[in-house]
Amino acid sequence: MPVPGRHNAANALAAAAVGALFGLGPEEIRRGLQSVRLSALRLETVRAASGAVVLNDTYNASPASVKAMIAFVGELTGYRRKWIVLGDMLELGPNEDRLHYETGASVCPGEIYAVLATGDRSKHTVRGAAERLGPERAIHFADKDSLVRRLLEELAPDDLVLVKGSRGMRMEEVVHALVRG
Q1: pLDDT (tens digit per residue) in 151-168
Q2: Nearest-CA neighbor of 70 among 174, 160, 143?
C-alpha cells in the first residue's frame, strides 16, 4: 500500500477483511490497496524555505489521528529534530480539555523535539506535552503568525515538521507560511 504509517496498515487490514467478507479474492484486494491515494491535505510532503521537510496533515484532526501521527513521526529517522505543530481539535464535546491534554501527553521525549500549538483548546495539549518534554519544548502561541515566526527562526534543513489540526483551524496556513519563508 503506497500510504505510510502503522495506523494505515491497520486500516488496510480492516479494508482487506471487509473485501474478503464481500467475496473479493486476494489479488483483487491487493490491487485495490495498491491503488489507494490520499486526499489533499493528508500527509502531503513539502519543503519549507529553510529546506526542512513539512508533513501537511491539516485535513482534519481527532485525538486518535493526532496520536497516530505523533507516533508515526516518532518512528521516522534521518532528521535532526522533529517538530509537532498543532491546532485545536474541534467538536470533541465535554471532554475536550482532557482529550487535548492526553494527546499532548502522548509525545515521547526521545522521539519528538518540540510541540508548538495554537488555539484555546491547545493550551491543554501543550500542558500535557510539557510534562513529557519540559516547558521550553512545549509552547502555546496566541496565534498562527507568532508560531510561524518562532518556527522560522529555529528550523534547520535537516528538521521535520508535522502540521495538524481540525479544518476550522486552517493549519494549512502554517504550512504555506513555512514554504514561503
Answers
A1: 999 999 999 999 999 999
A2: 160
Strand residues in the chain grouped as ranges (E): 44-47, 53-57, 82-87, 114-118, 138-141, 160-164
Q: What is the pTM of this model?
A: 0.80
What is the fold of 44-180? Protein-Tyrosine Phosphatase; Chain A (3.90.190)
Using the 8-state DSSP alphabet, how is residue 90 labeled? Answer: P
Q: Where in the chain is the domain with CATH 3.90.190.20?
A: 44-180
**Could you tell me the CA-to-CA distances from 49 to 53, 64, 77, 112, 179 in Å, in that order?**
10, 30, 21, 21, 5
- Dist CA 30 CA 56 (whole Å): 27
- How many whole angstroms separate alpha carbon 127 and alpha carbon 113? 15
